[in-house]
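User: quick one
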Amino acid sequence: MSAYDILISEADITPNVTKEVSMPESTNRGALTEAVYYILLSVFKPLHGYGIMQLVSELSNNRLSLGPGTLYGAINTLLKKEWIELVDTTNNVRKKEYIITDLGKEIIKQEITRLKELVGNGTKISGGDKNDL
Amino acid sequence: MIYKFTKLFADYEKEEKWLNEISQKGYAFKGYSPFRYTFEDEEPNKYTYRIQLLENLPSHVDSVNYIEFCEELGVDVVDTSGRWVYFRKLSKHGIFEIHSDLESKIKHHKSIRAITSITAISNFVIAMSNFTIGIITKFNLWFGLLSFLVFIGLAALSYKQHLRIKEIESEQIID
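Assistant: Done. Structure below.
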């Protein structure tokens, strides 16, 4: 036990809060933002920046329109986290395309599980319309 | 026809608002130099304008990548000034915002607050050194006073930016 471990247990902080390396992650990550969730979904097939922006807008019924600052930052964060990667463009050097990684797919899987739990509890407790599911 | 306006803005959000108001009146923003905005005749509201402070100068590789990325999204550069970039996008393509999420918006405002604070402190240092060097001439006194006034102005501006960040952050909690 290092001094760090002692400090954490005394302070009652969950240790997995700031882990951002590309190792198998713990399941307690918390929510993805809508933008990140939809960007990940957009790149299950290779897609470039403009395509991602369009598809996210479509998927969200025009609710989410990603600004360039937001989208650029999100893509770079997702690249760093290795949830998406650049597609090897041997033919066309101009437009960079992105694709989801296996880690990214795992993240989506976990997120869907989390969302199902939320929707399930919500409809159960608030007695929502059964047809919504 | 070319139109030139002389204006000084302390708040980039107000500057954006002004550029877009002029655009509504039928003039497209064409270029910027200190205190000087140039416009040309254009159909009303053809473009929407946004201003962003980049993390680096436009010539830096990260900035070049970002600007290229923006161009793919139909966002063009009108002009730059230091790390500031003036963007435009055709209004008919819909709402144009650089930051559509609170996190990147806050990051942007924090960068702006940082550069304002640093410039403020530099002016303070210049003022103090002018007031305290061994031989104080009239020039030192006036220059020091001027620097000190700039420091006060920028410090106030920095505080205003700080309050704006707090305002945006409080929105985040609800989201």
